Amino acid sequence: MPQYVSDELMTTHLQVGDRFPDLALPNHQNELVQLSQLTQPGLVDRKLGFLDGYPLIVVFYRGFFCPRDRQQFRQLVQFQDELMVNYCKLAAVSADPPLVQAAFRAGLGAQWQFLADEQRQVIQQIKILDETEGEYAYRAQPYTFVLRPDLTIHKLYNGWFFVGRPTLEELRSDLRAIMATRSDYRYEAYNTPAVKQIRIPQQEWANGTPAIGANGLPVGQGVVRWFDLPSGNGTIVQDDTNEELFFNFTAIPGEGYRTLSAGTSVKFEIVENSTGLTARNVQKRLD
To answer: Which residues are 189's β-sheet partners?
Structure first.
């Protein structure tokens, strides 16, 4: 049994503006997850030069047995689809082991990360160890932290009483304030020639598939190495140089959501910028 240090002021010293520790804990699948991994910009963001990253909500909870935690999480389950389309992340931390976390998560229908601080190292580090719990000893006090992409604390909520826990509208307001600081929060950031070389507007294909290289860009041939359906991103290995080029599904001419399977032979135009090589006007090679 780990040794726990008593502290008469066992309540968090962290405040708005402080940097939250970049903790690394096993998740519900017993895979090590670091908080900064959750806030990183996606692959297409990096290719577009949008490096801001995304907000993260970290919820510390007592455990599966607590009715107030269950009520809070039932509300968050209603919020998780909204978080997904807004690219914001959520993680829940407790002293329960990964197997218990996995069962609790499945019962809730939750899709976010559940992190296990079995040794209470993080809980003690940020001074939220609860030494009053009568049924399950040494649990986390129920705090919710809303973090900026660099893990700076934007807002924190003390949920000792349930009314102190954030409502979904409060979380939405917090996330909106953080997202509004992103360099690409406005439409104008995407309506630029550089961005439209990678996220190609449908208007470019409106009058038919353009001929490869007709716009003066260099052309290449290669094979799709991988394509990820959820994100719409993939890479191509170029035949003559063996270099790997990124592409977004919008670089494939046609209507709707376009896909290419790994191993497909393709031809394409090549865009080179500060983020590396990108393929556009990607078409299947028939010869």
So the answer is: none
Residue 102 lies in a domain: yes
Evaluate whether residue 15 is within a structural domain.
Answer: no
Q: What are phi and psi of 8, to 5 degrees?
A: -60, -25
pLDDT over 80 (residue 1): no
Q: Is residue 92 domain-resident?
A: yes
| Domain CATH code at residue 215 | 2.40.50.140
Residues 206 and 272 in one domain: yes
pTM above threshold 0.85: yes
CATH number (domain holding residue 165): 3.40.30.10
pLDDT band at 41 (very low <50, low <70, confident <90, very high): very high
Phi and psi dihedrals of 224, rounded to 5? -65, 125
List all residues 6 or more positions away from 242 whose beta carbon is below 8 Å from its beta carbon: none
Q: Is the pLDDT of residue 9 over 50?
A: no
- Residues 221, 285: contact at Cβ < 8 Å? yes
Rounded to whole angstroms, the Cα distance separating 60 from 128 reads 9
In a domain, 41, yes or no: yes
> By the 8 A CB rule, do 225 and 244 touch?
yes
- pLDDT one-digit tens code per residue, 78-91: 999 999 999 999 99
Q: How many domains does the chain have?
A: 2
Q: Are 283 and 253 in contact (CB under 8 A)?
A: yes
Together in a domain, 181 and 212: no
Domain housing 131? 24-188
Question: Band of the pLDDT at 4, cuts 50, 70, 90?
Answer: low
CA gap 1, 8 in Å, rounded:
22
Q: Are 281 and 241 in contact (CB under 8 A)?
A: no
